[in-house]
Automatic annotation (TrEMBL):
Annotated TM spans: 31-52, 64-83, 167-190, 197-216, 222-241, 271-290, 302-321, 365-385, 397-417, 429-448, 460-480
Keyword Glycoprotein included in the entry's annotation: no
Record has Transmembrane helix as a keyword: yes
This protein's UniProt keywords: Membrane, Transmembrane, Transmembrane helix
Region (Disordered) residue spans: 1-23
Protein name: Glycosyltransferase RgtA/B/C/D-like domain-containing protein
Organism this protein belongs to: Paractinoplanes abujensis
Length: 643
């Protein structure tokens, strides 16, 4: 591969044309200049990222400009070194490694010492429980299906046990390594399709512009490890298809299946996404084989490996993780209902983008401009694939399959306009943007090479860098709210800023005085802290277990007996009440869960009387009160007695 191996002929030619010392000295000069450039710009960029977080803490409004200035200070010189014709393969690998490390900084600076995002609490708890109890596949009270996919948690717990570091620091090691593997994996996969080191490097940079790259796929979540597994599975699949019959093909086939199994054991959606990409590749290979443009043996190899992966996925989901379908179904069904409502005359189900967002106007415009740029780039890639047929049969099949995959990016724009489909749309872009990156990269390199004059090359380079900047800024703004990207003052109802010290202190008190693994009733935000650091088992309500009816009941009104019976028979012992629900509206418009029957009209959905009525009911005994947080112990034997 040109990315990882220097060209032997070029080395021999230089050795013959120069004295023995000259090539070594000449090869050191660009490497030294590159190292100095990246160290200086990396330090400056990191300082600007820190300044952006400090500005966000003081809510000065300057954090957006400082953040993107810090990102571009490093990214633009790194890209310049990657696309230089004279850059060696080793230099490109070094620059890509530095680029992967720098692009992890935004998330590292955002959460350096512990979980912060919603799902991170669930994964932290799961790894912590494995370290404490040594048991896999335990149900997680925060995200129900997390325990069924122990790949990430068992890896983190193993590193923590072997090295003695904390769960969080073990997770950081795994996540930074996975981030590096994504960047290098996309480059290696690109070289399987386009045997050119510059195209491979550009593909890796283009993929880093997807909306999940900087924050979502760097969090302590199972997709952060599963995405690199998917990319390297596709690398192994391409090599199995290309390899000669015999040990080489069998070896890469075995690697493909092992990586597929690891992906399945790590994340459900990534496993399904991997299976979808493999099916696309098989469909393209079959269509080309029917036209005798593709070897049938290669097509059969793709189908056998895809069928084997499908068997693994179906078996795992049916036997090990049967709850996954029930977990995903409500989100998909509601999203489809909302799409149908948008298509109807009423327009119901529509979601307004950037509603009440504090993001600056240029970020919002970039979010829409990024979609137009992606469409134009894909059109150019389609034209190039149609009229420039290069590479062997496997490369051509891979390029066409990536074109199909990349085109799936655009239908997700319809889902992002619905409240229930927006989350799934963002997650799908981590897969579909891989197709965009791999087919657009040769277009970018061709544009750079087409300009022969220096002024023309400079103009093309500036235009391409400007387009990439718009794509990076716009995709990130569309994919992640400012409260996820920047610190700031406490905000009730935010998945990142509602965890005030008062809640953490209450959870620690309950664990130390009453024990762990207690079944408790809580709201979404208290449940995150009590269920992770507090080591309890919270429930935040569902359509079949309407615990939120406890909070919704008016003072003096009877609680539904069916709910009391459920709480008593399932041995729930404690109730957590956050009185901020009577004073503030949650930022993300959720108190308990997405399908809650709670009014959201811009005003608090609860009165103080609704939340303090438990002080007077005989079956709830207050055992803790810190002002905002109150903890009650259930005594169902006294239910129905005098107040």
């Amino acid at each position: 591969m040109t990315l990882t191996q220097p060209v032997a002929a070029d080395r021999l030619h230089r050795a013959a044309a120069s004295p023995p010392e000259a090539p070594a000295a000449a090869s050191r000069r660009p490497a030294l200049a590159c190292a100095v450039t990246l160290v200086v710009t990396g330090g400056a960029g990191a300082a600007l990222l820190v300044a952006a977080n400090r500005a966000a803490e003081w809510d000065t409004g300057r954090q957006f400009g400082l953040f993107w200035l810090g990102m571009l200070v490093f990214t633009l010189p790194a890209v310049a070194w990657l696309v230089r014709r004279t850059s060696s393969a080793r230099l490109r690998v070094a620059v890509l490694t530095a680029y992967a490390g720098f692009t992890y900084l935004p998330k590292l600076l955002r959460t350096p010492d512990g979980p912060l995002y919603h799902d991170e609490f669930a994964h932290w708890r799961q790894a912590h429980q494995i370290l404490l109890d040594g048991r896999l596949f335990e149900q997680n009270p925060i995200v129900k299906v997390v325990g069924d996919f122990p790949g990430l948690h068992s890896t983190v717990a193993s590193i923590s046990a072997l090295t003695g570091v904390s769960i969080w620091h073990g997770a950081l090691f795994v996540l930074i390594t996975a981030h590096l593997l994504v960047v290098l994996g996309v480059a290696v996969l690109a070289e399987e399709i386009w045997p050119d080191g510059r195209i491979a490097a550009v593909a890796a940079v283009l993929y880093s512009m997807n909306s999940s790259f900087l924050f979502f796929d760097t969090q302590f979540g199972y997709e952060s490890l599963a995405i690199p597994l998917l990319v390297w599975t596709l690398v192994a699949l391409h090599r199995a298809m290309r390899g000669p019959a015999g040990r080489a093909r069998l070896g890469w086939s075995a690697v493909t299946l092992v990586l597929s199994a690891a992906t399945i054991a790590t994340h459900h959606l990534t496993a399904l996404g991997l299976l979808g990409v493999m099916l696309i590749l098989c469909a393209v290979a079959t269509a080309r084989a029917l036209r005798r443009s593709h070897p049938r043996a290669v097509t059969w190899t793709a189908w056998v490996l895809t069928g084997s992966a499908a068997v693994l996925v179906v078996t795992y989901l049916a036997v090990v993780a049967p709850r996954t379908a029930g977990y995903l179904d409500p989100y998909l069904a509601k999203a489809l209902d909302q799409v149908a409502g948008m298509a109807g005359s009423s327009g119901s189900g529509k979601r307004t983008l950037f509603r009440e967002s504090v993001a600056p106007w240029w970020e919002r415009y970039a979010a829409f401009g990024a979609q137009g740029l992606a469409g134009a780039a894909m059109a150019a890639a389609l034209w190039r694939l149609r009229y420039r047929r290069t590479g062997d049969a496997v490369s051509r099949t891979g390029a066409l399959a990536m074109l199909v995959l990349g085109s799936l990016y655009f239908p997700a724009a319809l889902l992002i306009l619905t409240p229930s489909g927006a989350e799934g749309a963002r997650r799908s872009w981590a897969f579909s943007y891989l197709g965009i990156a791999l087919v657009v990269a040769p277009v970018v390199v061709a544009l750079l090479d087409h300009a022969t004059r220096r002024t023309a090359r400079a103009a093309v380079a500036v235009a391409l860098l400007a387009a990439c900047t718009v794509a990076l800024v716009g995709n990130t703004a569309a994919g992640m709210n400012p409260s996820y990207r920047f610190p700031g003052p406490p905000v009730f109802g935010s998945d990142t800023r509602s965890a005030i010290p008062e809640v953490a202190a209450a959870s620690a008190w309950l664990r130390e005085t009453q024990g762990r693994d207690l079944r408790i009733v809580a709201d979404r935000y208290s449940g995150l802290i009590f269920g992770s650091y507090g080591e309890q088992r919270p429930v935040t309500g569902s359509q079949s277990f309407r615990t939120y009816d406890l909070y919704l009941a008016q003072p003096g009104r009877e609680i539904p007996p069916r709910l009391i019976e459920q709480l008593s028979s399932w041995r729930f012992g404690y109730l957590i009440v956050d009185r901020r629900m009577a004073r503030e509206v949650p930022e993300i418009q959720i108190y308990f869960e997405t399908n809650e029957p709670v009014p959201h009209d811009g005003r608090p959905a609860f009165t103080l009387g609704q939340l303090t009525k438990f002080d007077h009911t005989p079956w709830t005994i207050k055992i803790y009160d810190s002002g905002n947080i109150a903890i009650y112990r259930f005594d169902f034997t006294s239910y129905g007695g005098p107040r």
